[in-house]
Sequence to fold (170 residues):
Amino acid sequence: MAVEQLLILIKPDGIKKSLTGNILTKLSEARMVIIGAKAVKVSKELAEAHYYQLKDKLFFGELVDYIQGKIYGEPYDRVLAFVYQGEDAILRMRKIAGATNPEEADPVSIRGAYGRITTKGVYENVVHCSSDQLEAAREIKLWFKPEDIVKEIYPTKKITVEKEAKTIWT
Ligand code: DAT
Ligand code: MG
Fold:
């Protein structure tokens, strides 16, 4: 048993279907803690970096559009990103999330209950869930800054950045 962390995304179809509460309730069955949370408008660069392992697949372009919520538009073109931590978190959360293909997923899992395959063949499977610790570390570092996570889960270092434009509240 190891304490692990992973990235969970509630994808734009989950937002559009107003499933945030249902999904978080289902995930809470695993008794993990949330150590980072935010709403993100996904850029093309972030979407492509997130799914870089699938860049040679025929469905890559549609997958990138989907995670950006392009087909849903305002106000659904965003995702909710969470970092969860707990014992054997990855295996347990992936079980609750269900198989990649929503039609093959356990009907009681999140993807089985709420996912669908569109007529264009896009797997609208409602959530993303990291699949191993290496992938989780890469994804968490891609989606979150160290200061956005309430625990230091990976080594950090301090750097001084000069003349960088920053947006602050007026
Ligand atoms: P998972 O999200 O279960 O880790 P993955 O990493 O293999 O699955 O794929 C990432 C996403 O790509 C997945 O959530 C949905 C989409 N996808 C995977 N295989 C697909 C396929 N054969 N057709 C359409 N979309 C697919
Ligand atoms: Mg995956």
